Amino acid sequence: MKIRSLWLLLFLLLAFAVALGVKVTKPPQLSTIVPYVRPQIVSFAASARQVNRGEPVTLSWTTTGTTQVSIESRPQLNPGSLGEKKTGLPPWGTMTVKPEEDTVYILECDAPKGVAVVSARVQVQVNPTTLTRGDAK
Length: 137
Fold this sequence. Notes:
Layout: H1 2-20, E1 40-46, E2 50-51, E3 57-64, E4 69-75, E5 84-89, E6 92-97, E7 103-110, E8 117-126
């Protein structure tokens, strides 16, 4: 008799809820909590530290805790000239540059929330140009 009474009570509660327009919804989903990972530069290097003017140099980098990086070039002998900044680069990769003068390359990686910035420097020196007899005027 008790089981029949429980079923009847459950049926009446459900019918009453439907009559009142109560909507049964799914419980909210729990979201996955992703821990904050501080951006880190694992490596940043140039294929050569000293080259002739205009020769290619490959910059390579690996980072963690970021989705994109930027590399800025800063000429060392002409402090008044502005360097160039490449943004939106992947967290790891390579890039070929052809320095015309001594240049420092600065790699920066931002945290996804913009909280921390880390940077590393690589310097490339350009060999002095030697003049030959035909070049002098």
